[in-house]
Amino acid sequence: MGIPLRRESTETDRLLALSDGVIAIAITLLVLELTVPEVPPGTPTAAVPTLVFEQWHEFVGYVLSFLVIGSYWVNHRRLFVHIERHDRGVVWLNLVFLLVLAFVPFASSMFATYPNQFGVMFLAGALALTGLCLTLLWSYASRQRLLKEGLASRTVQIQAARFLASPFVFVLSIGVAAFDPALGILTWLLLVPINVALQSRLADSLEAPIDRSEDRPDG
């Protein structure tokens, strides 16, 4: 039984195939939530652009959710680039991540329908929970020593900070939206400079020579 289990722990193709499929479907469902405005009888067609512009919240929800799901896919891909093998915990945490991510299209639709305090907080909560699941997956893999040998602890920490950045910003936006929904939406823009800064630090840590003393236990 040892050899089959060892082979199973290093076989990640089906796990990644399932993840890519669920993420692709979730992204596709986002555009299906966009609706064509109905022109009331007797209204001139010249009013169509105005009706479209009145749906600004639907487009904001679509673009934001698409970009965030896309970034989560990129982070998920990078996560499994560093994971050398997996166990049952990784499999189930990955399923929980997909469970929450597949809920994002509904949260985006809720925001498009109710672009008020509740809609903003609902979408931000769903996106925050998705990012938190990805962070837990990375933390579990690093604690269980499932990552590739030679990965510096500083790189692991920076990657964890990057995974945690999105849920942090979305949780912050929930607090802000409780007072001002529009300002809560603007808070999401913080993701851009934060991710750029962390990506720069991550690139530097990957290019830097590995200090083996980082991985030695104290004492």
Can you give a write-up of this model?
By secondary structure, the protein is mainly α. It has one domain (2-209). 74% of the residues lie in helices and 0% in strands. The chain has ten helices and no strands. It has helices at 2-10, 13-32, 48-53, 56-82, 88-101, 104-113, 117-143, 153-177, 181-187, 191-207. Helix 2 (13-32) packs antiparallel against helix 4 and helix 6 (104-113) packs antiparallel against helix 7. The longest helix is centred in the first third of the chain and has 27 residues, at 56-82. The radius of gyration is 21 Å and the shape is elongated. It is found in: Membrane. Belongs to the TMEM175 family.
Structural class: mainly alpha
| Shape call | elongated
Write down the oligomeric state: single chain
Number of spatially distinct domains: 1
Task: Please report which band the strand proportion falls in: under 5%, 5-15%, 15-25%, 25-35%, 35-45% or over 45%.
Answer: under 5%
Q: Separation of termini?
A: 38 Å
Give the mean pLDDT.
80
Order of helices and strands: HHHHHHHHHH
Q: Any descriptors?
A:
219 residues; 74% helix; 0% strand; elongated; ion channel; potassium channel activity; transmembrane; transmembrane helix; transport
